[in-house]
Structures are given as structure tokens and as C-alpha cells.
């Protein structure tokens, strides 16, 4: 479990084929300072497991499903990534609850620099649009952010906007984002649960109908 507060910008140093996935090695001096075998580290929003490590690096396997769902699909040595260690149970929840389970990817459409912050518009998949609300939480490349604007519900090509303060611009890879940059998206876990529960309220759903019948005959 993570909070979306990026601790350092690391870099991919090696990518090796591993079955239908890949094995990544990343430079991450802070992240490995107290990490152990089997620990979780968020890599640009993707939860990966440490399988080997050194003084300033760690290695993790990435399975095909994760490659298909995230921007790690075309990862190469030299790519900068946002890194966050799993949050401690006694720590502060500085951002929001982030699982490191990517819902899909989006693409930066526009970056509008301001005097104190930048507004970034990100195009998002149609199926994720209902899970994003104005002033709600979103994790973009593992960064916990507040949605500052959303497209209308009828928009054929939905988008969201976030406002990035100087600290976020300097401390994360989002400060380097430009139009066309692909990003990982993780919507709010509560929104995902609500959507799933609502799916079972329809009478066309066999499981919902069976459950209702059982309660009625009890």
C-alpha cells in the first residue's frame, strides 16, 4: 500500500527478457536503504517486488499483464521513474490510498504553465471516465493528485486536469511531462468498489438475481 507521495526519482538501468515478461534493474538509493527481499516499491505507480538488491539498486520482475496495462510496456534503460516505498502502518497518509494496481494509461494532451503551478490535461480511457470526479483523488505515474477539472460526461474523448505545485514539478517525473507523454493511471479504490457493487444491482445480472432470491426465501 502506498500514499502517492514520491520519495525519489530513480532510473531504469537494465531491462532483460524473462519469459513473457521482463526483469528490471533500477537505480534507487533511497528506496533500497531499508528495503529487503520481497518488499514492495512503487515504480511510476506500478507496485513491484524486490527480488535482488545492492547498495543503490534493486531488481524486480514485471509480468505480461502489468506490461500490457502500464507504460512499462516499452521501458528502456535510462528512463526516469517515480519511486515510493510501501507506507508504514504507523506513518501519515500524506496523499491517498494507492495500491500500485494500474487501471490503464492516459496521454498528456496539454501542459499550461502558470506563475506558481502548471495545469496538466490528460486524456483518459472512456471506461475510466466514470471513476474520475472533480476534486477527487487520482494517481498519475504514482503521484497522488487532486483532480481540478473533468470533461463532461458526454465527451467522446474524456480527459482530466490536475494542477501541479512547484514541489511536485521538481520532485517527480511529471515536471518533465509534455504533450504526448504516456502516463500510468490508478483511479480511487472507493470509486472502483462502488462501480462493481452497482453492477450487481441490475436484474440482468444472474449472480444478483440468485442472491436476491436466496434472501427472499430465507
TrEMBL record:
Any Pfam family the entry gives: Lum_binding
Entry keywords, A to Z: Repeat, Riboflavin biosynthesis, Transferase
EC number: 2.5.1.9
Pathway: Cofactor biosynthesis; riboflavin biosynthesis; riboflavin from 2-hydroxy-3-oxobutyl phosphate and 5-amino-6-(D-ribitylamino)uracil: step 2/2
Keyword Glycoprotein recorded: no
GO molecular function: riboflavin synthase activity
Reaction equation(s) it catalyzes: 2 6,7-dimethyl-8-(1-D-ribityl)lumazine + H(+) = 5-amino-6-(D-ribitylamino)uracil + riboflavin
Lumazine-binding repeats, residue ranges: 1-96, 97-198
Residues of the Lumazine-binding domain: 1-96, 97-198
Superkingdom per UniProt: Bacteria
InterPro entries documented for this protein: ATP_synth_asu-like_sf, Lumazine-bd, Lumazine-bd_dom, Riboflavin_synthase-like_b-brl
Chain coiled-coil ranges: none
Role according to the record: Catalyzes the dismutation of two molecules of 6,7-dimethyl-8-ribityllumazine, resulting in the formation of riboflavin and 5-amino-6-(D-ribitylamino)uracil.
UniProt cross-references to NCBIfam families, sorted A to Z: PRK09289.1 (NF006767), ribE (TIGR00187)
Name of the protein in its database record: Riboflavin synthase
Amino acid at each position: 500500500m502506498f500514499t502517492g507521495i514520491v520519495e525519489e526519482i530513480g532510473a531504469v538501468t537494465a531491462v532483460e527478457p524473462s519469459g513473457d515478461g521482463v526483469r528490471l534493474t533500477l537505480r534507487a538509493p533511497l528506496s533500497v536503504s531499508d528495503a529487503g527481499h520481497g518488499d514492495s516499491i512503487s515504480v511510476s505507480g506500478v507496485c513491484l517486488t524486490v527480488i535482488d538488491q545492492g547498495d543503490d539498486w534493486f531488481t524486480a520482475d514485471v509480468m505480461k499483464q502489468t506490461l500490457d496495462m502500464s507504460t512499462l510496456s516499452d521501458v528502456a534503460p535510462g528512463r526516469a521513474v517515480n519511486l515510493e516505498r510501501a507506507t508504514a502502518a504507523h506513518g501519515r497518509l500524506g496523499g491517498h490510498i494507492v495500491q500500485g494496481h494500474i487501471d490503464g494509461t492516459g496521454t498528456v494532451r496539454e501542459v499550461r504553465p502558470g506563475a506558481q503551478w502548471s495545469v496538466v490535461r490528460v486524456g483518459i480511457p472512456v471506461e475510466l471516465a466514470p471513476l474520475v470526479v472533480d476534486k477527487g483523488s487520482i494517481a498519475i505515474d504514482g503521484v497522488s493528485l487532486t483532480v481540478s477539472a473533468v470533461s463532461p460526461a458526454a465527451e467522446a474523448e474524456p480527459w482530466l486536469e490536475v494542477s501541479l505545485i512547484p514541489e511536485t514539478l521538481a520532485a517527480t517525473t511529471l515536471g518533465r511531462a509534455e504533450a504526448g507523454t504516456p502516463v500510468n493511471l490508478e483511479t480511487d479504490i472507493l470509486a472502483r468498489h462502488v462501480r462493481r457493487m452497482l453492477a450487481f444491482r441490475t436484474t440482468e445480472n444472474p449472480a444478483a438475481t440468485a442472491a436476491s432470491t436466496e434472501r427472499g426465501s430465507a
